[in-house]
Amino acid sequence: MSPCMIFRSNLAPAVFKNFGTAPRTIHTVQERKYLHPTPPITPPTPPVIEQLSKTMGRESGYSSIPPSRKHLLQYVPREQNDLPPRSLRDSYVEGYIPLSKDLKLQEKYTTFLGSLRIGRLLEDMDYFAVIIAQKHILNPKLPPHVPLPQTLVTARIDKIDFTPFVPQVKEDVKISGHVDRVGRSTMEITVWMGQKWQGSWNRITRAVFLIASRDPTNQKAAVVNPVKPKDDIEKNIIEAAGKRQRLRQHQQQLHISKTRPNDDEQKLIHDLYLKTEAYKRVIHTSATPPSGGVWMEQLQIGNTIFSQPDHRNLHNTVFGGFIMRQATQLSWVLATRFSKHHPQLKHINDIEFREPISVNSLIRMRAFVVFTYMEFVQITVFVTTWQLHEEAPRLTNVLHFTYQVPEFVKQVYPRTYHEAMMYVDGKRHFDEVIKPTPEEKGLLNEEGSLVS
User: Fold this and answer.
1) 41-55, 200-214, 284-298, 410-424: which range is least confident on average?
2) Alpha-carbon radius of gyration of the chain
3) Mapping DSSP to helix (H, G, I), strand (E, B) and coil, where does residue 351 land?
4) E strands along 3-49, which residues?
5) How confident is the prediction for the chain on average, in pLDDT?
6) Are 218 and 227 in contact (CB under 8 A)?
7) What's the distance, CA 259 to chain centroid?
8) How do 293-295 and 411-413 pair as beta strands?
9) CA-CA distance, 39 to 26, in Å (whole number)?
């Protein structure tokens, strides 16, 4: 998680502290009555996540056995109708990463090339999505000072697009977002990032998060407030989010692990095979890729991370934003080594969070170049975890990255059926992210602020 942010929302002014990391700062405006109002204190007294952790019933400090939240089960509503409807504007939050004034913060967000660390921005967006989800939930029957019973976890992140705008290290970054669709126990949340440069606002990226609400013990789903559109703007956003949800479900059913490659994809794999010399030889290992090609097995790197308490979230498992940051850095290294250029990250697509990762886990990341086209490089990162009492590692996350470099890159060739399926899956993700999509209008104006 990043060290410092200044937030504006409908809550009262406050500063909080994130256990295990440096302080974050939050200022808020647009005063509103709220079930758990934040005390009006001034920076730099103990800041943001400490207050959020108290909202969840967590205290500062690490314990290998966190306090039980089982007593909060009695406060979980049985039906969604037990909670009042909320508008999309009710969940709106905006904030700033104050890079223009904080030199130490600049250093934490700067790469060795002098550009902004995208991985840290992704970490902030994941953290920010949970803040928005917390703000959406309102239970008038919850007694004062009783922690929020819902456990909020990131289940999935859809396509994250990066604009051509190059963010500056010495200018504040604006982050904003709101809930745009609600199921029974899930919330789709859109988060924007932008920066003001030479008098105008420029979007850096936008991400769509799927946040799941679980009961206090994280054993089963817990209901959240339904949405009731305030006007036609909100109604259109909810309808667009519903279309994304149906598309998401359709794509999951067509995943390579569930559906065999179609005729065109099978022909593509066979054509790749014919371009090599393998079909002419008896010994497969003597096969060579055609000129300008490279074997997929040669385009992979990995690392192992021993997770620590300062990598955890409010629920004592490894923070999803930390996983995204580490995977992004690893994919960038692989793209750089392969292309011999400093690549530009264009898209992150279809991030899966299959299960939580314990703080005491060994985290293994493997990055593969799975598809190339002209100047684009498609990379998949697989995240597996392992503990001492387990016999085999478990796949917990899969992330897909699309990079662009200044010149055409070599074509990647699979050698095994498993690699061929990775190739097909990589091509599917690449085809998905490069498709032109209409600009979606949200609740934000061109400056990234809430439409009144």
Assistant:
1) 41-55
2) 23
3) strand
4) 6-8, 14-16, 24-26
5) 77
6) no
7) 26
8) parallel
9) 12
CB 321 within 8 A of CB 371: no
- Do the beta carbons of residue 427 and residue 433 sit within 8 Å? no
**What backbone phi and psi angles, to 5 degrees, belong to 16?**
-130, 175
pLDDT of 3:
43
Please give the distance of CA 241 from its chain centroid, rounded to a whole number: 17
Residue-level pLDDT at 11: 34
Looking at residue 289, its pLDDT comes to 73
The reported pTM is 0.76
**CB atoms near residue 215 (< 10 Å):** 19
Q: How many C-beta neighbours within 10 Å does residue 37 have? A: 12
Contact 49, 75 (CB under 8 A): no
State how far the alpha carbon of 176 is from the alpha carbons of 189, 194, 357, 380, 451, in Å.
11, 9, 28, 28, 12
Number of other CB atoms surrounding residue 410 within 10 Å: 16
Long-range contacts of 74-77 (CB under 8 A, 24+ apart): 75/139, 75/141, 75/142, 75/143, 75/146, 75/149, 76/149, 76/150, 76/215, 76/216, 76/222, 76/223, 77/139, 77/141, 77/222, 77/223
The sign of the dihedral angle between the CA atoms of 95, 50, 135, 31 is: negative
Task: Name the helix (H) or strand (E) containing 73.
Answer: none
- Least Cα distance to 415 among 284, 300, 259 occurs for 284
For the stretch 105-162, pLDDT in tens is 888 888 888 888 888 888 888 888 888 998 999 998 888 888 888 888 888 888 788 8
Round to whole Å and give the CA distance between 320 and 352: 10
Whether residue 25 has pLDDT greater than 70: no
Q: Minimum mean pLDDT among 40-44, 91-95, 168-172, 337-341: which range?
A: 40-44
How wide is the angle at C-alpha 25 spanned by C-alphas 19 and 28, nearest 5°? 125
On the question of pLDDT at 43 being above 70, the answer is: no
Whole-number Å distance between alpha carbons of 182 and 86: 10
